[in-house]
Amino acid sequence: MEIKVTQVKSAIGGKQNQRETLRSLGLKKIGQSVVREDDAVTLGMINTVAHLVTVEEVK
Fold first, then answer.
1. What is the CA radius of gyration of the chain?
2. Domain at 2-58, CATH class
3. Half-sphere exposure of 29 toward its Cβ, with a 13 Å CA cutoff?
4. What's residue 59's pLDDT?
């Protein structure tokens, strides 16, 4: 299973680890989307920046 992660808010003013987590996910700007595997590592990163991104399931 894969998930689509889209950045909807800016990381400006956020904590350093949140900015680094967005970069690790492959997100650089608002509106950008990436498709990632649905595993524990990815879900942990999404949990860290849940207030900055939206998540959708992709088949």
1. 10
2. alpha beta
3. 0
4. 83
Q: What is the pLDDT of residue 20?
A: 98
Angle between helices 40-48 and 16-25 (to 10 degrees): 140
Q: What's the DSSP call for residue 19?
A: H
The structure tokens listed for 50 are: 């849940």
- Cα–Cα distance measured from residue 56 to residue 39, given in angstroms and rounded to the nearest whole number: 14
Mean pLDDT, consecutive 10-residue segments, the chain of 59 residues?
97 97 97 97 97 96
d(CA 38, CA 9): 22
- CB neighbours of residue 25 within 10 Å: 20
